[in-house]
Amino acid sequence: MVHLLIIIAGVYVATLGFAVLINVSPKYLNDGGIVGVAGYLVYLAYYTYIGGYVGGNVLGAFAIGIFGMIAARIKKAPVIIFNIPALVPLVPGGQAYQVMKNIAMNKPRVAFGFLMQVLMIAGSLAMGFLLAELVIQLFNYSMRSMKRRRKTA
């Protein structure tokens, strides 16, 4: 339990730190940190109980996309303010470092393995955001069509 609280605190601080670094307004920092923690917890739950970093990153990015859109609607702010900092804990920085290290050490096969991980994680993050956008657009479309049906009835 303590381990999970340390992870949550670390993800929250990392998200806030990156948000400060890219000059996000202080009134949006807490919400961005919450979005980041929520997305990482979805990733962590999938990775822990089901396994696989690709599926975990898809669902984590999906959760960040959905929660970021909700936060943007509540705060009346651009969604990018919440999504970009929240994505930082899921970015494959360690694997990218290993690619460069193994290239420098003249180990191209090991570097290629890490490069494939980086590409799969990056693709899964993009897929998660795409799915979140699709779900939000479908939800908005269905809400508009229901309002139109009520007006005509």
From TrEMBL:
User: Which GO cellular component terms are attached?
Assistant: plasma membrane
Cite the Threonine/Serine exporter ThrE domain residue spans from the record.
10-135
Does Cell inner membrane appear among the keywords?
yes
Tell me the InterPro entries matching this sequence.
ThrE_2, ThrE_Dicarb/AminoAcid_Exp
What biological-process terms (Gene Ontology) are attached? succinate transport
Entry keywords, A to Z: Cell inner membrane, Cell membrane, Membrane, Transmembrane, Transmembrane helix
Q: Assign the protein's first listed, main location to one coarse class.
A: membrane
Q: Which branch of life, at top level? A: Bacteria
Its annotated compartments are:
Cell membrane
Q: Where are the transmembrane segments?
A: 6-25, 32-49, 79-98, 118-141
- Entry annotated with the keyword Membrane: yes
Family per UniProt?
A: Belongs to the ThrE exporter (TC 2.A.79) family.
Name of the protein described by the UniProt record:
Threonine/Serine exporter ThrE domain-containing protein
